[in-house]
Amino acid sequence: MIAFxxxxxxxxxxxxxxxxxxxxxxxxxxxxxxISHRVFKPDAQFVEAVLPSSLxxxxxxxxxxxxxxxxxxxxxxxMIRLWITTAAALQYTDDVGRTVVxxxxxxxxxxxxxxxxxxxAWDWLKKRPLLLPGCRGPAGIQKDVVLKVGMFGDxxxxxxxxxxxWSEWRHLYPCNCAAMLRVIREELGGGEAAGHRSDLIQRLxxxxxxxxxxxxxxxxxxxxxxxxxxxALLRVGGGAKRH
Length: 243
Description:
The structure is a single chain. By secondary structure, the chain is mostly helical. The protein contains twelve helices and two strands. The chain has a two-stranded antiparallel sheet. 33% of the residues are buried.
């Protein structure tokens, strides 16, 4: 599905000088075919003009589940820009947001792909779509991704990233939790971050309310880790620990 997009699903003319709504002509995909910036420059206007809404949705789903196409492309950067411009051409819904952020967090785990992720893609985290248990994107809570997001120095992005990946059904490993604590202490202190800390504390309160003391050993572990994160937010804001 995503294969033919860079090779222009070209519409035949309809005699008016404008593309018609049907009659797509595609080129078969091969990972060895070059995707040149000079030949194909993905932008929202191109995607909006060429692709119907149903195909945009199908393309997003294909990008999420078939990352190997991106890795095998001769120009990974262009392929990733195509992905995010396809998303931008759709009307925003929670489902679209979840699909994009799920894909983004999976890409962030892959060093080869992560280096090509544009700022426009990271900004989708700021929409704060709540990922569902079936999503694999929250695996993006690994230490390297946490620290990478922290290095942007963007308070809204950092807050939104933590807001999205924190969940009562996602296990927090010690090294990943330690990276989050570091980002909180280094980036979320001071008066300018007060609103961001408040958002995150409210998110943690919700998660902690779902992790009952009588739950499984994993839930008990996660409850302790989330309590640590909440305490860190209070401390950098000058507050006291909740009893």
